[in-house]
Every structure is written in C-alpha cells, then in structure tokens.
Design goal:
With 192 residues, the chain is an alpha+beta fold. It is built from six helices and six strands. A six-stranded antiparallel beta sheet has the order 3-1-2-5-4-6, with helices on one face.
Length: 192
Amino acid sequence: MILLLGTKAFSPFRMDAIKDAIAKADPNAAGVKIDAKWVYAIDADDVDAKDLERASTLLNASGKLDKADFFVFPRKGTISPWSSKATDIFRNCSLNSIRRVERGIRYRVSDAEIGAWTGVLYDKMTEGVYTEIADLFDVDEPRPGRSYDVLTRGVDAICEADKEMGLAISDEEMKYLAESFRKAGRNPTDTE
C-alpha cells in the first residue's frame, strides 16, 4: 500500500466547529490542537514513478505520508462510493497498475490524550478510527448470515446486533424494531 498526503481536510470554520464539539464531548480535551489532512491509500502491484506522479496530480497529493496519530477511513472491508468513482477515473486515465484508491483523513493531535472525543470526528455508521491501516484493503471471506432472536429475547437481541455491527441505534429505535419484528412474527438478519 502506498499512502499519499493531500491537502487540509477542513476549512478553518469547520475546524473551529470540530474543536467546539470536542470540548463539549470531553472538557479535558478542550485545548487540543489538530492537524487534519486528506490521505490517499493506493492498492497497487508495481507503480512506476511516472504513474505515481500522475496519481498524485489527480489526487492533489503533495507527497508521501508523514507522521500520523490516527486515521479516519471508511470501515475496513468496505468500498466507499468515493473509492469506486476514483478507481474508475484512475482506470480511465490508464493507471491500470492501481487496483484501488481510498480516501481518509490523517490526524495529528497535541495537548490532549486521544480518547472518547474522537467520536465527533467520524460517522460511526460508515467510518472507523484506526491507528494501523496496513490491512485497509484486506477482504475477508464471506461469512454466513446471522439471525437475531427478537421473538424470544426482544430488545436485548437488537442491542446485541447494534453492538456487534456498530449501528448506533437509539433506545427508542431498538424498542420500535423489536416490536415491529414481533408483529411480523419473524427475526431480523444481519443484512437488514
């Protein structure tokens, strides 16, 4: 995997809003200093210098990745819509040695311990916070589907599914889903 560093990920106005959200989430992290830049992960076999330069130009990347405290990328094992489109563009530009490209954000922080406040930096439904991304492009073997026994266990089964899949379902939504599946007389699966 090749990691290229891009431009600033947020405008100053957006960065101020992020810092305010961090201060609300964790008052101890109120003085955190954040450097957030786009980072592009490239999955490729052999990329020659010319193709790497063309890829950097397309991505508006300035060079290879520098130090990072953590990354926010689309969840591992998924392919984001951004990645699908960017990969198509790379193929149309004859950059065939590049199998896939994915975009994330590289964070460097100071004056605060990395903690729960990182939750304000990403969408829990589609993204993850990672300190290591070497396995970003790894694809697991398909697993069999799973059913959650709502008919017997009720809301507890929905809560279990929420924790396993990181769905961020509210308590009200869990109650609603449990009742809906009871009325339907069936259990939900992990694909619903």
